[in-house]
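Tokens for chain A. Residues wanted.
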């Protein structure tokens, strides 16, 4: 059975969460940039966990979904702190972090902050370092000048209203890059990425695989998959991937 609530992150802003109790390791879903815990991937995983009696936690970062705060006040560091606050308060034991897009970056930052808690990582179009390599480096000179002068830049988005990019987001992200040095992790890593992704190049999955020190790393490329990987077949792939980490494909299950 699912329960829901709100967690004060320590400054009066509350983070919305939904949790189901069950067997460990706990599956923790980390949404993407401007996404939330009610999306197709989060709810598909919640159904998967409920059917198997597996513990799961999903939540919204500050400035996202049902949580308090303004999106434009957020930074990679602030959202990474949200992750740690939620898992510290609401989970026990080992965790499987499932990070979508920006959530993949936050998963790696959480691994750095809580190395003893993380049993496995799953990335869905994972986008570590995206503020630098996919935003800043893609901006024109004029766009960079506007951002530095005004503190904010609105860029077109195929998903709806223009995306506000703040100077704080770019500058904070620059201090939290993870792909320039080896990522020390011995557990299993599973990376799912669509080769038709218009937002995050699929080659980034290969770079993550090279950077993580674990030898148990698998990259699955979906030739016609887009960035969201939310079609029924994509969701089935995600659930099969997590099932494999739980030993349901005949493999070795993670420790509870």
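Reply:
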């Amino acid at each position: 059975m699912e329960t829901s609530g709100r967690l004060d992150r320590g400054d009066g802003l509350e983070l919305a969460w939904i949790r189901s109790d069950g067997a460990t390791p706990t599956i923790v879903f980390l949404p993407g940039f401007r996404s939330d815990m009610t999306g197709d991937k989060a709810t598909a995983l919640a159904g998967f966990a409920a059917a198997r009696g597996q513990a799961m936690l999903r939540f919204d970062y500050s400035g996202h979904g049902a949580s308090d705060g303004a999106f434009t006040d957020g930074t990679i560091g602030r959202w990474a702190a949200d992750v740690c606050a939620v898992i510290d308060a609401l989970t026990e034991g080992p965790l499987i972090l499932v990070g979508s897009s920006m959530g993949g970056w936050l998963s790696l930052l959480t691994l750095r902050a809580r190395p003893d808690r993380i049993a496995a990582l799953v990335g869905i179009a994972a986008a570590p370092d995206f503020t630098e390599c996919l935003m800043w480096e893609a901006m024109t000179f004029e766009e960079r000048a506007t951002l530095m002068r005004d503190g904010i830049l609105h860029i077109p988005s195929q998903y709806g209203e223009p995306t506000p990019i703040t100077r704080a987001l770019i500058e904070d992200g620059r201090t939290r890059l993870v792909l320039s040095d080896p990522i020390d992790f011995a557990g299993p890593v599973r990376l799912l990425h669509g080769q038709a992704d218009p937002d995050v190049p699929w080659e980034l999955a290969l770079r993550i695989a090279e950077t993580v020190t674990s030898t148990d790393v698998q990259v699955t490329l979906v030739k016609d998959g887009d960035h969201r990987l939310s079609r029924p077949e994509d969701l089935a792939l995600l659930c099969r991937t997590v099932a494999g980490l739980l030993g349901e494909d005949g493999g070795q299950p993670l420790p509870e």
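The mean pLDDT is 95. The beta strands are 2-8, 14-20, 23-30, 54-59, 95-100, 118-124, 152-157, 160-166, 189-194, 217-222.
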